[in-house]
């Protein structure tokens, strides 16, 4: 032992020297390195190169440095998971942050993100961020590119964005933003101040109210104004006609009304104009002079009855006209079908008379849709290749017209990049490229936000896009060999979407650097497509579903020193090898004698079997069969112990099977004790153990399957289920009753020892069930009132008294439960940005003020909810009692249950009524992104 102690001291000394030398030679600014390590502690699936203490010196992928300072972080499409903490804002020289296409990045943005004073590019496109966009974003004075689209941001758009005078690109589309469009009024900034911005992308949100008259002005340089798919009301302001730089305008799919501005035709550079699906009235607008107009859609409005306007004939660039259900009547002039028109959709109007297709010399014409009008005759041109749709007209009752013209037809496209060889059978996950190779492509959806409808039905447009993309990649030395385009579709939102696949050159897959470069080129709009494909977005798929490491920088820093230390220890181990070999048989014999399953056969029918109450034994073959041989498709969670699989038993019951991996399997005696303990607890607020497997060297537990994840998932927004005040009270009460059963009704009593929000599961009706009894201890009739045991649990929830004394009591569970109640109040993790939630609440609470002065730290979901927070003060009082420093000052579980029942009654709810509310009742659940299942563990002490 003395020799071993000396060896350990040598190891520690060598590790210290190596660590000291490494720190001296580091090329990264000490503060930047520390910040990046702290920032990524909770991230998973980081590149393999992210190890060590020196991001710049070790050239971490995606990190660019200048003079030892980190100036750029580009980790697009890496499959990252975790949250963006406030530590980020200490990277004072950071200029570019691109985390696009990482759906696993969730939570709110740091409130002080405005402290990144040198940031010029912020791209968080296609992540899972939620909550309000912080007002401090308006303090990013150097920001040129701001892309927060395709997340789950809520609340109003910060007016402070109007302070970003250098902003070129502003994209907030595809979120859940509400409220009115902010404009300046002398006391606050607004979007009208962004005179140098060229892109206003706000489609697919929930903006409401009228479009402010002063939103637009003649000083603006806007080229794209996209406010489609919102809830805007009122009329389109005349000030829009002052922005003569505009090229694409979309106000379709709103609730707009009134006449269109008479100066709309001042927008002589506009190529795409979509005002469809509103309630616009007045005359059909006069677009004479808009000579660059390529596509116009005025469909589904309530314009005054009018003939086909003459300005169609004067617009020499016009290729697509859509005026469905706009009240048009009378004859369609023969010259209307002249060059360069390609697509004409005038269905559901009152057009009549004879349509003359015979005299048209238009070689570009592709589609003429005149369904559901009053056309009585038609002159056709023999050999025409364009599609004519006349269903629902009187002419179709005559036999003179070819039946194909009168059949109801759907407009569609089945375009797919042609392949000029016989496709071989590619391995799983790989795809066949246009150059006849099997590879792992980088894929995603290419979405045109203001498409010319004529592009939809014309294969040559898609070929042009493919060639343009490939040429761009070649010109920029990006390793793309070919591009495949599949299934163009015009969706219900007016977007033209298609699947793109980029295939790697000279190998079968892209490395992380290549993927990051491709993602940045597409998210930053570096690729400039042909005019017909602007503006666009690329929604990338995750390219690294099985790669990456769980980042924990605190362990990596010791590796260099440990390597040297291991060399020294190796000598000691060799010396001990002989003695170990001598003891081997004796040790094996002792273990066999201590094994309670020594005589337990594979069917569990003989010998010292566990004393079980209700749980059954499963063979390995049974569980293998019900999980399809433990298929990855059925993998619903993982942790340090192993993996959890979804299985279906022979009777149809769905179960969760927790399978320990070899390195984490506990001793058979402990496993026997655990299943005995789990089999004897039965309560509606406790997860039920169905059975277990101790067969083929496996240790598995079989639980009832809980479909709606953990309380933590719902509070963070990860599950998509929003919990109002009443529901949180019911979950708190259900959890407390489950805990009360363990403490007061189980015989002997049980201390859970790991109460936390990830161990409270929500069933299909969002009822709470306490889970994971792996650390639980029987309490018995100890006269001391405590059990002395090694400290185990999860940091942030640990009872400080237990931590200091090793004395475990039922009040230790009460402390953890109190932290859970604080999580339910704030939706914050127990330890966040180095601050302990208990300390934050105790320092903030002021019982003389409204909401106890906790408004700033409370979950915004609670504050924005229409439900009154009845009983909030009592709830806070109870929580503070639960997290008292000493156990004697905390309430018992029964007292907690009683107090929560009183709060429920104050809120007008019967605490004993069964909940009938399901997860589908809560906003967001139907569109929730995938989230990890509850059967996974956090880092344990």
Please give the structural blueprint.
Layout: H1 2-25, H2 30-40, E1 44-46, E2 63-66, E3 69-74, E4 81-83, E5 96-98, E6 104-107, E7 121-123, E8 128-132, E9 145-147, E10 152-156, E11 169-171, E12 176-179, E13 199-201, E14 206-210, E15 224-226, E16 231-233, E17 248-250, E18 257-258, E19 272-274, E20 279-280, E21 295-297, H3 311-314, E22 320-322, E23 329-330, E24 343-345, E25 350-356, E26 367-369, E27 374-379, E28 387-389, H4 403-406, E29 431-432, E30 438-439, E31 442-448, H5 459-475, E32 480-490, E33 496-504, H6 512-523, E34 536-540, E35 549-550, H7 553-556, H8 559-594, E36 616-617, H9 620-626, E37 635-639, E38 642-648, E39 654-660, H10 668-679, E40 689-695, E41 698-704, H11 711-716, H12 725-745, E42 750-751, E43 760-762, E44 768-770, E45 777-778, E46 787-788, H13 800-805, E47 807-808, H14 810-826, E48 831-832, E49 835-836, H15 837-844, H16 860-864, H17 872-882, H18 893-906
Helix pairs in contact: 1-8, 12-14, 12-18, 14-17, 17-18
């Amino acid at each position: 032992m003395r020799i071993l102690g000396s060896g350990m001291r040598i190891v520690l000394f060598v590790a210290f020297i190596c660590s000291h030398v490494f720190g001296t030679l580091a090329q990264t600014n000490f503060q930047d390195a520390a910040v990046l390590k702290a920032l990524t502690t909770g991230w998973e699936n980081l590149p393999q190169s992210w190890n060590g203490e020196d991001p710049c010196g070790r050239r971490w992928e995606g990190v660019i440095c200048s003079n030892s300072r980190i100036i750029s972080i580009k980790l697009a499409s890496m499959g990252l998971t975790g949250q963006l903490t406030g530590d980020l804002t200490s990277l004072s020289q950071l200029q570019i942050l691109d985390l696009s296409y990482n759906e696993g990045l969730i939570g709110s943005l740091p409130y002080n993100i405005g402290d990144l004073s040198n940031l010029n590019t912020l791209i968080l496109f296609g992540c899972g961020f939620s909550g309000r966009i912080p007002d401090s974003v308006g303090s990013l004075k150097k920001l040129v590119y701001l892309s927060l689209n395709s997340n789950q941001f809520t609340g109003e758009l910060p007016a402070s964005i109007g302070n970003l005078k250098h902003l070129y690109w502003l994209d907030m589309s595809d979120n859940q933003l509400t409220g009115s469009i902010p404009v300046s009024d002398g006391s606050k900034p607004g979007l009208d101040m962004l005179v140098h911005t060229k892109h206003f992308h706000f489609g697919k949100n929930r903006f409401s109210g009228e479009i402010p008259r002063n939103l637009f002005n003649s000083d603006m340089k806007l080229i794209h104004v996209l406010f489609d798919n919102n809830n805007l009301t009122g009329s389109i302001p005349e000030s829009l006609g002052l922005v003569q730089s505009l090229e694409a305008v979309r106000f379709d799919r709103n609730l707009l009304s009134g006449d269109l501005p008479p100066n709309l035709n001042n927008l002589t550079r506009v190529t795409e104009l979509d005002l469809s699906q509103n309630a616009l009235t007045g005359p059909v607008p006069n677009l004479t002079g808009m000579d660059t107009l390529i596509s116009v859609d005025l469909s589904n409005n309530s314009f005054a009855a009018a003939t086909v306007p003459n300005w169609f004939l004067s617009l020499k660039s016009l290729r697509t006209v859509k005026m469905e259900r706009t009240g048009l009547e009378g004859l369609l002039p023969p010259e209307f079908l002249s060059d360069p028109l390609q697509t004409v959709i005038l269905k559901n109007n009152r057009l009549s008379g004879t349509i003359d297709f015979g005299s048209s010399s238009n070689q570009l014409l592709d589609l003429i849709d005149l369904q559901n009008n009053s056309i009585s005759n038609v002159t056709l041109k023999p050999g025409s290749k364009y599609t004519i749709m006349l269903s629902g007209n009187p002419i179709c009752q005559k036999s003179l017209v070819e039946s194909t013209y009168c059949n109801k037809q759907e407009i569609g496209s089945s375009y797919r990049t042609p392949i000029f060889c016989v496709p071989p059978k590619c391995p799983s996950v790989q795809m066949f490229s246009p150059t006849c190779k099997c590879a792992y492509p980088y894929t995603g959806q290419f979405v045109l936000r203001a498409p010319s409808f004529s592009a939809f039905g014309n294969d040559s447009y898609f070929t042009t896009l493919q060639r343009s993309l490939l040429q761009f990649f070649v010109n920029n030395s990006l390793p793309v060999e070919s591009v495949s385009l599949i299934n163009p579709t015009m969706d219900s939102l007016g977007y033209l979407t298609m699947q793109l696949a980029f295939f790697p050159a000279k190998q079968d897959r892209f490395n992380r650097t290549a993927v990051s470069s491709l993602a940045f080129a597409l998210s930053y709009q570096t690729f400039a497509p042909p005019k017909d494909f602007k503006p666009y977005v690329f929604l990338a798929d995750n390219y690294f579903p099985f790669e990456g490491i769980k980042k924990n920088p605190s362990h990596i820093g010791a590796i260099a020193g440990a390597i040297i230390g291991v060399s020294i220890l190796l000598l000691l181990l060799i010396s001990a090898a002989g003695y170990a070999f001598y003891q081997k048989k004796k040790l094996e014999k002792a273990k066999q004698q201590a094994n309670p399953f020594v005589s337990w056969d594979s069917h569990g029918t003989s010998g010292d079997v566990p004393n079980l109450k209700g749980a059954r034994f499963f063979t390995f073959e049974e569980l293998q069969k019900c999980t399809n041989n433990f298929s990855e498709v059925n993998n619903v969670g993982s942790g340090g112990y192993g993996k959890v699989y979804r299985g279906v038993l022979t009777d149809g019951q769905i179960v969760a099977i927790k399978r320990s991996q070899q390195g984490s399997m506990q001793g058979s005696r402990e496993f026997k004790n655990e299943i005995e303990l789990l089999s004897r607890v039965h309560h509606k607020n406790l997860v039920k153990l169905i059975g277990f497997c101790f067969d083929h060297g496996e240790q598995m537990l079989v639980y009832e399957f809980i479909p709606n994840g953990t309380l933590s998932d719902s509070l963070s927004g990860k599950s998509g289920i929003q919990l109002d005040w009443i529901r949180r009270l019911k979950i708190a009460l259900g959890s407390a009753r489950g805990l009360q059963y363990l403490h007061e009704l189980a015989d002997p009593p049980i201390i859970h020892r790991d109460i936390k929000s990830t161990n409270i599961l929500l069933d299909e009706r969002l009822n709470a069930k306490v889970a994971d009894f792996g650390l639980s201890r029987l309490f018995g009739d100890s006269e001391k009132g405590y059990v002395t045991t090694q400290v185990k649990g999860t940091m942030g929830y640990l009872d400080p008294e237990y931590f200091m004394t090793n004395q475990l009591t039922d009040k230790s569970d009460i402390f953890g439960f109190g932290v859970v109640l604080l999580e339910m109040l704030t939706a914050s993790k127990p330890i966040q940005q180095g601050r302990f939630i208990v300390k934050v609440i105790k320092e903030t609470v002021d019982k003389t003020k409204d909401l106890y002065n906790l408004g700033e730290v409370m979950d915004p979901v609670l504050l924005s909810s229409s439900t009154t927070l009845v009983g909030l003060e009592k709830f806070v009082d109870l929580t503070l009692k639960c997290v008292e420093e000493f156990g004697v000052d905390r309430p018992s579980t029964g007292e907690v249950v009683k107090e929560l029942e009183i709060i429920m009654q104050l809120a007008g709810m019967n605490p004993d009524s069964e909940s009938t509310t399901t997860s589908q009742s809560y906003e967001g659940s139907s569109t929730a992104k995938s989230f990890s299942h509850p059967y996974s563990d956090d880092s344990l002490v």
